[in-house]
Amino acid sequence: MEVYSSEWAENYERLANAGIPGREGLYRICQASFQSLPADASILIVGCGTGVETLQLAEALPNVSFVAVDPAQPMLDFCARQVEAQGFDQRVSLHAGTLDSLPSDALFDAATAILVSQHISEDADTEAFFQNIVRRLKPGGYLYSADLHIAAGQNREKMIALWQDQALMAGIETDVIEALLMRFESDLRVRDEETIINFLQKAGFVSTLKPFSSLLYGAWLSQRRER
Ligand SMILES: C[S@@+](CC[C@H](N)C(=O)[O-])C[C@H]1O[C@@H](n2cnc3c(N)ncnc32)[C@H](O)[C@@H]1O
C-alpha cells in the first residue's frame, strides 16, 4: 500500500487508530486547547490528511473558519468529500500543496500540524516548516502539533519494540508494520522530544506544554511570542 495513495487514504483512519493507542484523546485535547479562541477565529490546518481534526474542530467551533492544506491529492480529496458531506464547505477552504504555496497572507488565531513534521526528514527543512507556521500566526496565536517521538528519558529501542507489539495486537498487518519500521530508519523521523521542543522554540514559540503522550506519539501546545 503506497503511502498517501487513494488506498492509503481509505485505510488511514483504521491504521491511525490502531497505531496510536488513545488516539481520540489527541484530537479531543486539540479541541479543548482552542476553546478560548474568539468565536469568529480562523484556524490553519497544516497537513489535514483525511480531515479528522478539521471536521472535529468545525463541529465544535461553529463560527470558526478554516484553511486546510495538504500536498497529497488523494488525502485532500478524501477530506474534501467529508467536509462537503458534513456541510462545512462554507467555512473550510482547502489548498492542495504545502504552506509555501498558500497564496493568502492572512494571519491565523491558531494552527494545527498533527503528525506532519515527522514526514520532513531533514532537520533544516523541519525548522523552516515550523518557522513558516509561526509567520502565519497572530502574536500570541496557538499551535497544536503532534509527532512521532521518543519521550524524554525513554529507551528508543524498547519503545519502538513495544509500539510494534501493540500495533500487531491492534490488527495492523505485519507487512504494513514492517514497512513502517523500515521507514522509521529513513524518511519517517522518530525524533527525540528535546529536538522537537528545540524546533518549536527556535521558530519563536513560547509556553510549550505537552498535553498528550502515548508510546511513540506526543502532542505539544505552543504559543507564538506576543511580539
Ligand atoms: C500522518 S498524516 C496526518 C493527517 C492528519 N493531520 C491527522 O492527524 O490524521 C500526515 C499528512 O501530512 C501531509 N504532509 C506531509 N508533508 C507536509 C508538508 N510539508 N506540509 C503539509 N502537509 C504535509 C501528508 O500529505 C499527510 O496527509
Q: Segments where pLDDT lies below 50 for 5+ residues? A: none
The overall pLDDT average reads: 95
User: Which word captures the global form?
Assistant: globular
CATH-defined topology? Rossmann fold
Could you give the distance between the termini?
45 Å
CATH class: Alpha Beta
How much strand? 25-35%
Structural class: alpha/beta
Helix content: 40-55%
Can you tell me the CATH architecture?
Answer: 3-Layer(aba) Sandwich
SSE topology string: HHEHEHEEHEHHEHEE
User: What is the β-strand count?
Assistant: 8
CATH-assigned homologous superfamily: Vaccinia Virus protein VP39
Number of domains: 1
The count of helical stretches stands at 8
Radius of gyration: 17 Å
What are the distinct ligands in this entry?
Answer: S-adenosylmethionine
Characterization of this structure:
This protein has a single domain, classed as Vaccinia Virus protein VP39 (Rossmann fold, 3-Layer(aba) Sandwich), CATH 3.40.50.150. Strand 1, helix 3 and strand 2 form a beta-alpha-beta unit. The chain is built from eight helices and eight strands. Strands 1, 2, 3, 4, 5, 6, 7 and 8 form an eight-stranded mixed beta sheet that branches. With 227 residues, the protein is an alpha/beta fold. The radius of gyration is 17 Å and the shape is globular. The structure holds S-adenosylmethionine (SAM). S-adenosylmethionine (SAM) binds next to helix 3 and strand 2.
